[in-house]
Amino acid sequence: MGKRRAGRELLRSLSKKQKKHLREFGEEHPFYDKLLLLLLLHSCFPFQSEDSDKSSAESDSETEVEQVSGYHKLLATLKTSPESESEEEEDESESEESEESEAEMDSEGSQETGGAEGGEEDKKDVPEEEEGATDTAEQVLSQEQADGTDISCDPRHGVIEEFTDVKHESEFSLETNFMEEESGDCNADKRDSNPFKQHMDKELEDKEIEKMSTLPKTSSQSQWPRLGQLIFSSTLEKHKTLKADKEVDVKQLHLHKPLESTWPKVNKQFLSSADKPSNSPFTPLQRELFCIMNSYRDLFYPERNALTNGEEIRHAYCLHALNHVLKANAQVLSNNAKRRDRKPGTDTDDYRDQGLTRPKVLMIVPFRECALRIVHTFISLLEVNDKKKIDVSNKKRFKGEFGSDPEEKPPNLKRPEDYEAVFAGNIDDHFRIGVAILQKSMRLYAPFYSSDIIIASPLGIRTVIGAEGEKKRDFDFLSSIEILIIDQADIYLMQNWEHVLHLMKHINLLPLDSHGVDFSRVRMLNLNNCSKYYRQTLLFSALQDPQINSVFNKHCFNFIGQVAVRNVPLTGSISHVVVQLPHVFRRLEAESVTSVIDARFQFFVDKVLPEYRDAIMSHTLVYVPSYFDYVRLRNYFKKEDLNFTHICEYTKKAAVCRARRFFLKGEKQFLLFTERFHFYKRYTIKGIRNLIFYELPTYSHFYSEICNMLKATDSGVDATWTCTVLYSKYDAQKLAAVVGIDRTAQMLQSKKNVHLFVTGEN
């Protein structure tokens, strides 16, 4: 790290022209001092001392080779160095700032599109830079590894060999430890009413497995006070429909003993004054959610909100996951003592209490900040009081890697509250960490095969699983996952949904290696490859989306059944549009879901775009949710030589500034605008007079946000504004979230275009 820091200090000492010339040509300018560059190369890429022992001829030839490679690696350093990159972007943004402020002529606009934009850290520019500098980044990475630099905790590198805690392996081994009498659950295996025992000890017959594989699910509806309308579905015989408990006694939930005392203290921050008189340790939402979780049914809850109920939901599933792990480990430790004390020749089939691999719970979350909060919740739930602190290994390292930088200044821009809630803290989306829990201790950074809980992002778990044909890939640790928690699933639609699908294809498969397992302790359900029928999946999202629904319907095989919350929106986000704007919903016809993509493009090109080609219809923003549709439209606009500009999630800051300025001044008639850019940036686009929603937004509140951008137009009082929305019968869920369920039913029945005029009070 010291060598790299010294190299960066020397980089800063170079002038801007020197950096630019070195970046473009890969060599120093002839008018500049060569000594400085040689010092820079020596500090970043020092020659090995063993070379001096060789002959002079060999030394000269090797020096020449290393000098050439050094220039290329220095070039890569310049391309990927955050300091040099930020300096270049600041120079460009400063020039844009003066032009932007002259164009907008108001303090708010100059703040948004000028200096604040130039100073903000752009997280989404990374993919475009990676495309151009993949090879050079790999060269720098290999050189750092050759120099002995510790890169295991550097999140900027695609970590291959990350840090794992090997030192505490024996302390957290389930095979060599025994149950302590005061830990509280020695007799857990004797509680027949324990939901954990009932679920894991159930033996499925071959007929039942065949039935679940072939027959469709039967469903029934139920109305709960807080969750609303629930859909219970199951393939096997109809189970008793759950009823929402009005009052919950903690002792009746069969929690592991420490959790009975710690949960009320940890959760009291979410209890309102209305809940406290009843002495309930749960909020109404938590009570109903935990009732379903504790029955070990699959659950899909699509009304998670980062502002209102996100944290109380996180606490509820953390309690359930920790309770499951503590019970499972207590059973193993208790059986260890029984096996130690048993007489020779005793049957060992009574001690089948493990899976093929140790990990039991997999928690998928989008950002490091989410993992940080989960671990803190675990620690709080395990600490009975202030005097009895649990031992947490590698806690300092964990806070350093998953916490936010205290010196990092927040961007000087106002964002919506939901944006601030989602992107709080460390928002790095490439991570994974194993957590082992044993009685009164917690081990962070445990190797996966020694972990009880794995917390990871979709990208982090995807890079471990790998792809078919890759030499280094591993997914055996997913073979015995008993609880899968996917939180904030809607965010993965904005990241890369393919990672989630890839995970679902590799979970609960038979491992390729034994990994030192004692097969006499493995449950028969795991040996018979029936793990997926016992896995509980908890899926939380902020919205209902066909892709999320597909995962819940096609990849969840829990033999107990599934529960999905299916509440329909009554009003829709169109009621939050505050500008007087006519909305025209134009229906397109498609024969199937697969053909709707081509049908939408053809409908837009033939029916919609000709109406906006006239110069009178200037300042037209085309909102495109899908990046692939955006690329298709961009190529078509270029082919037709239309006067347009475009902004997507990979557009650099300088190009974004130019596009916004051109669109505001009317120099560009069209602006192609992607949904993912809006999700990650939430910039206010000024100058809009005509809106075209190429497809309904994934997030319904984005519809009102985009429409309300029209009020930022200076000449909006006398302008004639329009809003056109394309939809098909396959967009029923998105349409209902925008216009409400009643209007959706009317619009789907009628094949005519629908005109709505919103005054801000509808």
Automatic annotation (TrEMBL):
InterPro entries: P-loop_NTPase, UTP25, UTP25_C, UTP25_NTPase-like. Residues 343-353 have a biased composition (Basic and acidic residues). It is found in: Nucleus, Nucleolus. Interacts with CAPN3; the interaction is required for CAPN3 translocation to the nucleolus. Component of the ribosomal small subunit processome for the biogenesis of ribosomes, functions in pre-ribosomal RNA (pre-rRNA) processing. Essential for embryonic development in part through the regulation of p53 pathway. Controls the expansion growth of digestive organs and liver. Also involved in the sympathetic neuronal development. Mediates, with CAPN3, the proteasome-independent degradation of p53/TP53. GO terms for molecular function: rRNA binding; U3 snoRNA binding. Transmembrane segments: none annotated. Residues 573-757 form the UTP25 C-terminal domain. Coiled coil: none annotated. It comes from Daphoenositta chrysoptera. One of its GO terms (biological process) is maturation of SSU-rRNA from tricistronic rRNA transcript (SSU-rRNA, 5.8S rRNA, LSU-rRNA). Residues 84-109 have a biased composition (Acidic residues). This is U3 small nucleolar RNA-associated protein 25 homolog. Residues 296-563 form the UTP25 NTP hydrolase-like domain. The gene is Diexf. Residues 136-146 have a biased composition (Polar residues). GO terms for cellular component: small-subunit processome. PANTHER family: ORF PROTEIN-RELATED (PTHR12933), U3 SMALL NUCLEOLAR RNA-ASSOCIATED PROTEIN 25 HOMOLOG (PTHR12933:SF0). Keywords: Developmental protein, Nucleus, Phosphoprotein.
